Automatic annotation (TrEMBL):
This is HMA domain-containing protein. Gene3D superfamilies: 3.30.70.100. It comes from the Bacteria. Keywords: Metal-binding. Residues 1-64 form the HMA domain. It holds the Pfam family HMA. PROSITE patterns: HMA_1, HMA_2.
């Protein structure tokens, strides 16, 4: 499943790495793509969106929106 998060508070590549690491602590096999300019984080993972959102929140960033779709 692909889950897309809108994340506030990311301002540099360190932020990108922090978000990616936080997600991968919950799912080592997650495929994560971060668009720093738009604040979008796309995650391909079997983990529930709530768990991944919590990981981003714990890393110090604010998730303002979550959307998901089934991978094909």
């Amino acid at each position: 499943m692909t889950i897309e998060f809108q994340v506030e508070g990311m301002s540099c590549q360190h932020c990108v790495a922090a978000v990616m690491n936080a997600i991968r602590e919950h799912d080592e096999t997650a495929q994560v793509q971060v668009d720093l300019a738009s604040g979008r984080v796309a995650v391909e993972s079997a983990q529930p969106a709530d768990a991944l959102k919590a990981a981003i929140d714990e890393a110090g960033y604010t998730v303002t929106a979550v959307t998901s779709s089934t991978a094909r």
